[in-house]
Structure formats: structure tokens, C-alpha cells
Specification:
The radius of gyration is 21 Å and the shape is elongated. With 159 residues, the chain is mainly alpha-helical. It contains nine helices and two strands; from the N terminus they run αββαααααααα. Strand 1 and strand 2 form a beta hairpin.
Length: 159
């Protein structure tokens, strides 16, 4: 399950958290895929030294059921880190911005750039290239952009 695909789940923090719980899995001793429990996630967030947050099972349960809707930034950072570390390969990164339904600045910039038909056409062609071909294309772009003013030169040519 890709959390970014389910619009209904994205409308609330509780819905986004529950979609993350449904997505993140671990494998037990018998090779079965298991969902993390609320208690397991709360404990993992609390013992993680990369952020100052502590999180109780009951508070996380209240976030999941929607009775609490305004967690601290450190709680959001801890949850985002846990679920990002446990997301399936190939799925988008889990960020605090995604948890609170704010637009990630990089995603917004990408969306703005891809609105241009020519940029989309280039991206589509690059997507079907081999990694070696993409590397060569990037080198060619760097050569064209040696003075760092590639965009203004391109705009002048189009006028």
C-alpha cells in the first residue's frame, strides 16, 4: 500500500497514521508478514536516540483514533522516522510534511517544473534511458550550464 495514493486516508492525521500502520510490516520467525502494533511503534519511537520524543502507547492510540490531533513536532519527527525506516522498497519517503498534509517544498518545485510540456517530455525520455545514458545526459547538461545561467540563455533563445 502506498500512503500517498489513498486520498481518503490523507484527510486527517489519524487516517495517515493508520495507513502507515497498514503499510509497514515486519517478518516473524515463521516468515509471516505482521503489522506493527501501537505499543511496538510507541516503544521504538521512544528508544530512538535520534530525536528527543517520548511516546506512550495510549497517546499514540489517541492520535490513531483522532481524539488527539495536535502532536508536538518531536512526536511527528519520531513517527515519520520510524515509518520511513520501515517503508517498503520503492515507496515514497515518509516526512513530517506528509504526516501533517503539508506540501514538501521539493515536491512542489518538481510539480511546478513538470507542468511545462517540454520538461515533461525530457523527463519521460530520460525515464526510459539506461543509467549510463542518463549519466551522459546529465554531463551534457552540465556542459551547457557551465556558467550557471542556463535558464536565462534558454529563455532568450525562445523569445
Amino acid at each position: 500500500m502506498n500512503p500517498a495514493d489513498d486520498q481518503a486516508q490523507q484527510q486527517s492525521l489519524a487516517g495517515r497514521l493508520n495507513s502507515l500502520f497498514a503499510m509497514a510490516r515486519w517478518t516473524d520467525a515463521h516468515g509471516r508478514q505482521r503489522e506493527y502494533s501501537t505499543a511496538e511503534v510507541a516503544k521504538a519511537v521512544t528508544v530512538d536516540p535520534s530525536h528527543p520524543s517520548t511516546l506512550s502507547r495510549s497517546y499514540l492510540a489517541m492520535l490513531r483514533n483522532g481524539s488527539h490531533t495536535n502532536p508536538t513536532l518531536s512526536v511527528l519527527e519520531g513517527l515519520a522516522k520510524f515509518f520511513d525506516d520501515h517503508r517498503p522498497p520503492g515507496t515514497p519517503h515518509i516526512t513530517v510534511q506528509w504526516l501533517v498534509a503539508q506540501e514538501d517544498p521539493e515536491s512542489e518545485l518538481l510539480r511546478q517544473r513538470l507542468a511545462d510540456h517540454q520538461v515533461r517530455a525530457i523527463a519521460m525520455r530520460a525515464g526510459s534511458m539506461t543509467p549510463a545514458m542518463r549519466k551522459q545526459l546529465l554531463k551534457m547538461i552540465e556542459i551547457l550550464d557551465q556558467d550557471g545561467d542556463f535558464e536565462s540563455r534558454t529563455e532568450q533563445r525562445e523569445e
